[in-house]
Each structure stands twice: as structure tokens, then as C-alpha cells.
Specification:
155 residues; 2 domains; Single_hybrid_motif; 2 helices; 4-stranded antiparallel beta sheet; OB fold (Dihydrolipoamide Acetyltransferase, E2P); Acetyl-CoA carboxylase biotin carboxyl carrier protein subunit; 5-stranded antiparallel beta sheet; alpha+beta; Biotin_lipoyl
């Protein structure tokens, strides 16, 4: 026998408005017999996104204040947590890691997950580059702004 599962469109609208307000691009909600995945689309202005990515993205540049800034190829970027949660290097339903040290990633690739209760929020690569190291162990609790992965940007 098939079970009828109804979705309240008002609830979906409320969830998507929360996603947009929190700048979260992806959410997956599961309950017995049903899984709903919502993905927010990126803004279509790629040039504006590239210009503002260095200012607005949760990326902390490595280095000390007052030290001369290294060139782009020598500069490491830390991908940081957008919220508190549990950092996952693998999807809960899989055994293979999303990325490992030495892996080449592209802008927008999922490099980890932040588990917040039953919600897994993707951690994405802010630039094309190479994963230098994963700074946090799988399953570790992290806070907002915690460096998760160190990337070396591609030229």
C-alpha cells in the first residue's frame, strides 16, 4: 500500500525565505518515507559575485597583520564555518570523503558538510584550487568562523 505524503507549500515558502535570509544555499529535510531537498540558485551576475567574494565570503586569509601580502599563488585561503555545527568530511550515507589533501576543487564544489541537528549544510570551495589540508577532524564540533579547510588557489 502506498502512503500519501502531503507537503504544505506555505512551509516550503517559509523555509526558503529562511535559507535566503541566512545565505544558505542547500537544505535537505528527511522524515520517515520522505526527503525534501531545496537548493537556492546563485545570483546571475558572475562579475559582481567575483568582486564581492573577496569581501563578503567567509574566507579568512592566512598571514599576520603588517606582513607583506603574498602573491595569489602563494596565498592560502581558509574555508570557514558559516555557523556552529558538526563538521563532516563524508556524507552520512557514504563512506568516501568529499575531498582529501591534494585534491583539485573548483569554485562551488562541496568540500565538506556542517551538520546542524538533522540538517547537513554543504561547505563549498570559494575558489578553484588545491586542498592543502583539512584543519578539523571528521565529527568535530565547530563554531562560527572556525577554519575548516585550507586551499591554495589556482592561477
Amino acid at each position: 500500500m502506498t502512503q500519501k505524503i502531503e507537503v504544505d507549500i506555505g512551509e516550503l515558502r517559509q523555509i526558503t525565505s529562511w535559507l535566503a535570509a541566512a545565505d544558505i544555499e542547500f537544505i535537505e529535510i528527511s522524515k520517515p518515507g520522505a526527503t525534501v531537498r531545496l537548493t537556492m540558485e546563485q545570483a546571475s551576475c558572475a562579475a559582481d559575485a567575483d568582486a564581492s567574494a573577496q569581501v563578503d565570503s567567509p574566507i579568512a586569509r592566512s598571514g599576520r597583520a603588517g606582513a607583506p601580502e603574498p602573491s595569489l599563488n602563494e596565498q592560502a585561503l581558509s574555508v570557514t564555518a558559516k555557523s556552529a555545527g558538526i563538521f563532516l568530511t563524508t556524507h552520512p550515507a557514504r563512506s568516501t570523503p568529499l575531498v582529501s589533501a591534494g585534491a583539485h576543487v573548483k569554485l562551488g564544489d562541496i568540500v565538506g558538510l556542517l551538520q546542524i541537528a538533522q540538517l547537513c549544510v554543504p561547505v563549498v570551495a570559494p575558489v578553484d584550487g588545491v586542498v592543502m589540508r583539512i584543519s578539523v577532524a571528521h565529527g568535530a564540533t565547530v563554531g562560527y568562523g572556525t577554519p575548516l579547510i585550507e586551499l591554495s588557489p589556482s592561477a
